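Changelog entry: the tRNA-dihydrouridine(20/20a) synthase record was regenerated in this release. Current contents:
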Amino acid sequence: MNTNNTDKNQQVTSPWRMSVAPMLDWTDRHCRYLHRLLSRNALLYTEMVTTGALLHGDVPRHLRFHEQEHPLALQLGGSEPADLAQAARLGAQWGYDEINLNCGCPSERVQRGAFGACLMHEPTLVRDCVKAMVDVVDVPVTVKHRIGIDKDESYGFVRDFIGTVAEGGCNVFIVHARNAWLKGLSPKENREIPPLRYDVVAQLKRDFPQLTIAINGGIATDAVVQEQLQHVDGVMVGREAYHNPWWLSRWDELYFGAAPSTLSHVEVEEAMVRYMEQEAAKHGTGWYSIARHMLGLRHGMPGARRWRQVWSDHRLKQLSAREVFAIANTKP
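Regenerated C-alpha cells:
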C-alpha cells in the first residue's frame, strides 16, 4: 500500500480514496463479502476488535475473513502499546492489508477500557501505541479519530494530536468530522448531534500535506463525496453504505477510474446465496445471519419492501437459502 498519495494519479489509486467505515455489529465478514461484490476497490474495515479479544479470546472467530475481501483493514481497540503490537502482529499474520487504531469511538464501554475517543486526551500514548505497531508489521498503521472531545472546538487540539501521533510513524489519518461528547450522549447521538465541521478536516490536510487525510461523518451522496475529494485524500462512508449498499456499485468507475460493476441486483443476490451455502457447509452458519446485511440491496426499487420482508422472515429459517431466494423473487 502506498501511503503517499499527493499527486492526482496516486489519489485515484490510493486505497483510502473510498472506504466503508468500521461499524460495530454491522461490518462483519458477511457484510464485507457483500460490499466486495459491489466494489472491487473500496477499502473495507472490520468491526473494532479489542486487544483483549485477540490476546485472550478466540482468534479465528475474530480474524477469519474471505480472500475476496481484500483490500481489508483490521481495526483494533486498545491503549497498551505492547498489547497493540501483539494484536497488530496477529492481524498482519492473518493477511490484513492495514492495521487501524480506534481513537474515535465515544461509547461508555470503550471509555471504561480507556481507549477509543478518550485516547485523544493522550496523544503521546497514541504515538507510542502507533510506534509499537509500526515496529512489528510491514503494513500501514493508521488512526481513526474525531476532531475534538466534548464541547472543546479548538482547532489546535486536533492539529496537535495529529502532529504528535505522526511522530510514531502514522501517515494516514481518518478523521470523523464531529467532536465526540464523552458524557451525556449515546453512540448513536454522537453520530448526529455534535455538528459536522468539514472545514476542520480540510484545514488539517492543508497543514499536513505530506499525510494522507480521509474524511468521515454524515456523507451520503456522490455530490458530497466529490466536493470533499477536492480538499482531502479520501472519503469514508458509514451508515449510508450499509443501508444502501448498491451505491458501492458506482464507486469503482467514479472514484478509482476502473470498469464499473456489471452485476445486476439479482446476480449479486445469487452470489450471496452461493456464499450462504458455502458458509453453512464450512461453518454451520445460518443464512439468516448473513441475509440481514443485504436487506438494503434493493433500496428504492419497486417490490423492495416485500423482498426485504421475505429475507428477514424468521419463520423461513428452516428453509435453505436457495428456497428463500426463490420465494423472494417470485411475484406475489
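The beta strands are 18-20, 43-45, 49-50, 72-77, 98-103, 141-149, 172-180, 212-216, 234-237.
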